[in-house]
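Q: You know discrete backbone vocabularies at least as well as I do. I have my own habits and do not want them to colour yours. No explanation is needed for now; the record alone will do.
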Amino acid sequence: MTHPLPHTVGKLRKVFAECFRLESSAQDGLAVVLTAGSLNTVIDLLDKTLSVSERQDCKVLLLAEGEALNFDKMSLVQPLDAFVAKARSGWLAEILRQDSFYVDFQPIVSATSPTKVFAYECLLRGRDGEGETVPPELIFDTARGAGLLFQVDRAARLTAIRDASTHGITTPIFINFNPTSIYDPTFCLRTTIAAIEEAGISPDRIVFEVVESDAVRDTDHLLNIVRFYRQRGFRIALDDLGAGYGSLNLLTSLRPDFVKFDRELICGVNLDPYKQKVFVKLLEMARDLDVHTLAEGIETEGEYRWLAEQGVEYLQGYFFARPASPPPLSAPVLSEQISFTPLVTESSAAPPLSLELDLDSDTLQGVLDSLHERVAVIDASGKILMVNYAWKEAGFEGGLPRGTRFTGVNYLDICRTASYEGLEDAVRSYEGIRNVLDGVTPSFSFEYRCDTPEEERWFLMNATPFSRKLGGAVILHMDITARKAQEAKIHLLAHHDELTGAANRRRFYEEAQRTLAQAEQELLPFSLLYLDLDDFKGVNDRYGHACGDQLLKHVSATLQGLLRQGDLLARFGGDEFVLLLKGVASSEVEAVASRYRTALEGPFNIDARQLRGVGSLGTVSYPEHGRTIDELLHYADAAMYREKARHRPGRQGLEADQEERLLA
């Protein structure tokens, strides 16, 4: 073993000296002489002796008896974790050698016809030497540590194709693939393509599902894999939307055919207002991108009904059918569990959280105190009957002296008094709670902002009937600050280019359509500038994509610094930008464009290089050049290319050498 810390060396020397012969070595290493059949003992000792961080710091080199350690052997050094994983992966290597894999098929159903199977997801299983099933988590965890992920991922794809063909499946099939296991799609996926062709499966019935998207570091590599699949007629699904910002970024860049919402987000979504808010935003984003939506991990009728109400297209989970081989031909579990009646409407439903309780006061108080949310129970007049611990602590943190009595105070009077002082939230609270108490509405909720000197904070207030017999209401205040922050980030990702911070196409079209509607109604002018960097590809080729990305950031920042209030800069892709200039008429647009041309002259200082260049601009104005946004963009793009053509003879822009336009 090589390069552990001195403390680690001391621990290992003490342990190994009891079982093995140690050879003299440098202070930062340890040489252990192994005997026949002793490798498993070594592995066990390493596991028991070293912590995770210590194992990560150690490296291992195996040498035959009498073999000298020299420079050539250094290429064989491997991390201790990988060494241990490989030593313990013999069972997986045997499964690979014997091809002892099989697939269970889990139905994916249509939300509008949930007893009929729309597609199947292919889920890998293995059989060990004794015929016992090996779960996929163990298979892939071991493969990842032992460097066998490529082999296992390929076996999973081939097994899915083989078993689907064997069972005569005619619906679409979802096949998982891990992008980190594919280094060259043309080479790595050729066996997969050959197996599909041999099985006679139509490409449009294959949906390749990107899994472990959080591990993707090279988005361009993943896009290359996706292009390879799409060029051959296959469809793409993105797994675990909502599990992290990585999947949100991939949603906008991959534009998959299907998106699957993270099962952690789906679990209990019908009961969790926080999850519901996040889910609705993600669903809206997917719809705007014309992506088919699929919710997986559904285990209860409540989850199913809530998701169906939101308009999710496809559903998957134990509630419908468990994975099996041969594949279930329908969703039998579902048909046994529920009868298909229309979803309950708000007007016909019993008031949510209505309670017919037969609990003593201490028991109910204990239940309320176990909740993190701030909860109070009021009677029909608004008088507070009970509050929980979180409600009291919030009051004390807000400045009330400890020992303050909360019960007996009329909560409606507090809201009414605050409303007299002009607090709009208090007015809404009073009216909403009063309507719940009077039976006018089954519930009331709204979000409000309540900042501290240190941070911006948001809360959700919810009022629901307490008891049909006793009347009254339950008032709940939930801290939703984290959710609002996540919603803001989701909105930012949905409307802005991640690299440059400029608006994206979607944001541009939204603002441009509003501007057009206002211009038509009020007879106001506006103009568009279509901008493209000359020979941007040359920068990427000569200095690398990292330099090109930095140039795009600098250009975007420069352009945004010139924007007037109300104007908008959007990145349309690659090195193309569009500026929306409100109130700028055709007689003024060239003067405005000249300022942007001057700004594009640079210089832009990037990684000790000074880049100078000229961008090409095309200008159009409403209504002279078009009466729709697409028409204006078309003519602006054409005008930009005419200017680019004028640059080429004498002004090569970013193609030119150091003395002319490019200083390196």
Notes: Residues 333 and 405 are 53 Å apart (CA to CA).
